[in-house]
């Protein structure tokens, strides 16, 4: 694991390696009961889930995230928020998912791994995004959710403070998604600062989109659950 991560200029210590190994074990155990991942081979999980989640640390300094409030929308089995929390103990993470079984899994993981910089919330993004306790309260939003960028922008941008940043994890169709998101970016007062290629292997091509929130989110967004999916901005 250390060698693989080092190949991407990411260093991990022995304690972090132990946490990732235990995370893998729990992921596979729970995956027998609930659908968490189709990827179950150890090397593949390490690369395509754990490394993938922390790849932005290849290009961004850890100091950038110190003391920041970070929300992971649609975390699923904890990606990318939980691996990032392991790597960034001085940042505060909130992981949000709409399925309570996944939240129960994550509760056990953070308890066993003794991770104390994560808060878990069971909620749909559209409902939490209008909650005054969470709307425009976060410095950073991350999401590795399998959703097109226009949808992700509506789900994620309401959580971020004005002048805050969204880091959206993307793969092969990034240019197509950027083109489709022009209207959403305009309506939601966001702009793409950078598109960074993080990995360019044939079966592992990854980008991060750095998106700045330039102004407050209009009150009507996010729309009620299901609306964004039926009629993307």
Throw out a few tags for this protein:
233 residues; alpha/beta; 7 strands; 37% helix; globular
Task: Give a description of the structure.
The protein is an alpha/beta fold and 233 residues long. It is built from ten helices and seven strands. It has a seven-stranded mixed sheet with strand order 3-2-1-4-5-7-6, with helices on both faces. The protein is globular, with a radius of gyration of 17 Å. The relative contact order is 0.13. The model has no long low-confidence stretch (mean pLDDT 96).
* DSSP summary: helix tally: 10
The helix/strand class is alpha/beta
Strand order, largest beta sheet: 3-2-1-4-5-7-6
Low-confidence stretches: none
End-to-end distance, in Å?
A: 41 Å
Would you tell me the overall average pLDDT?
A: 96
Helical fraction equals: 25-40%
Beta-strand percentage?
A: 15-25%
Largest sheet: 7 strands, mixed
Order of helices and strands: HHHEHEHEHEHEHHEEH
What integer value in Å does the Rg equal? 17 Å
- The shape is globular
Q: Count the E strands.
A: 7
């Amino acid at each position: 694991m250390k060698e693989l991560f080092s190949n991407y200029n990411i260093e991990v210590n022995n304690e972090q390696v132990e946490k990732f190994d235990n995370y893998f074990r729990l992921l596979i155990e729970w995956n027998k009961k609930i659908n968490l991942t189709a990827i179950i081979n150890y090397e593949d999980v390490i690369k395509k889930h754990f490394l993938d989640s922390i790849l932005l640390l290849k290009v961004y300094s850890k100091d950038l995230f110190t003391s920041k409030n970070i929300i992971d929308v649609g975390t699923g089995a904890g990606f990318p928020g939980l691996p990032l929390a392991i790597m960034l103990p001085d940042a505060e993470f909130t992981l949000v998912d709409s399925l309570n079984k996944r939240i129960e899994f994550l509760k056990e993981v953070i308890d066993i791994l003794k991770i104390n910089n994560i808060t878990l919330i069971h909620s749909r993004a559209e409902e939490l995004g209008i909650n005054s306790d969470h709307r425009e309260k976060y410095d950073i939003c991350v999401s590795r959710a399998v959703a097109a960028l226009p949808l992700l922008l509506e789900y994620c941008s309401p959580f971020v403070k004005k002048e805050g940043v969204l880091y959206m994890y993307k793969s092969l169709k990034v240019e197509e998604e950027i083109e489709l998101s022009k209207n959403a970016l305009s309506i939601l007062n966001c702009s793409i600062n950078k598109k960074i290629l993080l990995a360019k292997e044939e079966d592992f091509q990854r980008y991060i989109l750095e998106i700045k929130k330039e102004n407050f989110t209009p009150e009507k967004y996010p729309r009620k659950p299901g609306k964004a999916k039926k009629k993307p901005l």
